[in-house]
Fold:
Amino acid sequence: MSLLQFVNFFLMSFANDIDFNIPNVDLNAPIIEDVVSFIPEAPLLIIFGIILIAITIFIIFFLKKFIVNSVLGLAIWAVAVFILNIELPFIPSLVISIIIGPAGIGTMLLLNAFGLLLV
Structure:
């Protein structure tokens, strides 16, 4: 018996145990009415929810590296400003850490070390 015959035999024996008949459903049953009553009447909410889900998927798949870079930059900025007490201009350094990430904070630390950064 070849592998193809074995797979065919296995699938056919598995499919013999499955009932492929669709049961008759009474559309006037109270269960169906309960399910239909939960469907929101405002299609704008459904559309808005679908748009939010699509935006989230876009952010997760396409902007994942940017988000990780921003979070790392923010964490390094917080350590530099609050734990190590390095004097950096608050708002500019915060914005640079979020947009550019660790490289931006590193640049600001180098500028601060050489005295080129006005605090």
In short: The chain has a mean pLDDT of 78.
